[in-house]
Amino acid sequence: MAYARGLVARLGDRLDFAAVHPLAGYGRLSHRSALRYLDLLERRWDSEGGGVAQRSVAETLPLLLSLLPKRGRASPGTVYVQASPHHLTRPALVRRILDQEQARFLCLVHDLIPIEYPEYARPDGALLHRRRIETIASLADGVIVNSAATGESMRPWIEKTGRTVAMHVALLGTQSMPTRAMDVPDGRYFLCVGTIEPRKNHLLLLHLWRTLAETLPQHAIPKLIIVGRRGWENEQVLDMLERCPALRGHVEERNGCSDQDLDALLRGARALLLPSFAEGYGMPVAEALAVGTPVICSDLPALREAGGDVPDYRDPLDGPAWRAAILDHYDDGPLRAAQLLRLPAYRPPTWADHIAIVETAITALQR
């Protein structure tokens, strides 16, 4: 949505939307219909958690029919911009699109984690992502990376092709949410945000919370809220969430959470906890710091790009260090006080800055 809205604002009618339809194939979309669809989608996102009714087929069919792609007219200077990984496992399709549009290709790369850490991906994740990255390396004329860390991972793949590909670092933006009244937990709580998967290292937090529950008085045990859908290869984590008696009443799992509710949870948390083993960027870090919430996170290059000098960084394997940092923030200790002094200087990345870099990349490819 940030790409669609941001590029419309900057390029106006010079921007066309396109899609790959399972029946109609690739083509351009009606500009008017695409904007209507974006309006509808945003209204539904804004209504998340508000009891919005599911629309019937009869209500949605006219809009869906208006979004059938049609063959457009290729023109000089066209740049095909893709911000998602869709269809990148099909290089022949991407090549046909570029030939049809007579376009240069600009693509956003989020990370190379499934390739670099296949043990954290689905069984076929490394192979599929390798195909995506090979497609980008062989066909893209420009690459947007969401962090310099992702750029360093991407660089060898481009160098292997012998091609010259412009690379632009553009941190993902944050945006303020409209405030909405919601019930936040009583007392002091910590928040962990992200898909529940081994790479996010939820297991460290769950073992730590079990120890806290077994060693501290009931009134001194912090609450942990985990926001994220359940992912893959999670047997140990799910067993603890579902069957560990010591965690009951102290750890809460929320698999669904609207943007507005997440914003409220972030604002009320003592700190965001992110003990990941690998990250391409670290959106929760930037989102938490943007609303003035302290962060305790893994000492990873991508997270340092997102958080700068503000968070308290810890080794994701150092359980005692995490326990000490969490209890310090819970009890208003010196660690928390020092981070609160650093927080006002934090300047969160914005989508306006990101899209400005994308526009610069587009302009460079049109020369």
Please tell me the overall pLDDT. Answer: 92
Strand order of the largest sheet: 9-8-7-10-11-12
Order of helical and strand elements:
HEEHHEHEHHEHEEHEHEHEHEHEHHH
User: Looking at the chains present, what oligomeric state does this protein adopt?
Assistant: single chain
Tally of DSSP helical segments = 15
Largest sheet properties: 6 strands, parallel
Global shape? globular
Determine the fraction of residues in helical runs and give it as a percent range: 40-55%
Q: Uncertain spans, ≥5 residues at pLDDT below 50?
A: none
Amount of beta strand: 5-15%
Terminal residue distance: 27 Å
Rg from alpha-carbon coordinates: 22 Å
Counted beta strands: 12
- Structural class by sheet pairing and helices: alpha/beta
Structural account:
This protein has 367 residues and is α/β, with parallel strands linked by helices. 45% of the residues lie in helices and 14% in strands. The chain is built from 15 helices and twelve strands. It has helices at residues 2-11, 31-46, 57-66, 91-101, 113-116, 125-139, 148-161, 202-215, 235-243, 259-268, 283-290, 301-307, 319-330, 334-342, 351-365; strands spanning 17-21, 25-29, 79-82, 104-109, 142-145, 166-169, 189-193, 223-227, 251-254, 271-274, 295-298, 312-314. The strands form three sheets. Strands 9-8-7-10-11-12 form a six-stranded parallel sheet, with helices on both faces. The protein has a four-stranded parallel sheet with strand order 3-4-5-6, sandwiched between helices. Helix 4 (91-101) links the parallel strand 3 and strand 4 (104-109). Helix 1 packs across helix 15 (351-365) and helix 6 crosses helix 7 (148-161). The relative contact order is 0.12. The model has no long low-confidence stretch (mean pLDDT 92).
